[in-house]
Amino acid sequence: MNRRFFNLASLSLTALGLGARFADAETFEITKTDAEWQKILSPESFEVMRREATERPWTSKLLDEHRKGTFNCAGCDLPAFASDTKYDSGTGWPSFFDVLPNAVGKKEDNTLFSTRTEVHCRRCGGHFGHVFDDGPKPTGLRYCMNGVSLKFAAA
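and the corresponding structure tokens:
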């Protein structure tokens, strides 16, 4: 593969909205190679957090997690969501109506022929899911998260 091929492929993917992760490159406090991430994340977590895949609905063990505590990034352990903001959205993914301060980053996601707001860990860039404006009061937001992107820490 030569440089010209790579540049053309990158431009094509970006134009299609498939290369958004590369086009919107951010810098994060914690960076690792794919091999390093694969050593610390499960295969499912790696695909979701580093490749922006989506876990199957209704499969997350966090759906039934109702104890007091925080839901932390599975990649770097940064607390992202408080348990008192979790609710059952009926979507099949853990949902929250708010985030902890300074916990997440957001970016526009133009994949799947729509515009959504992607949510990721502000410290390591791990993909969590998407935020929608159809949530409950007081924020009206629904942070629809992949359970494999998070781990629960009891209070």
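(Above: one complete record from the training split.) The two ends are 51 Å apart (CA to CA).
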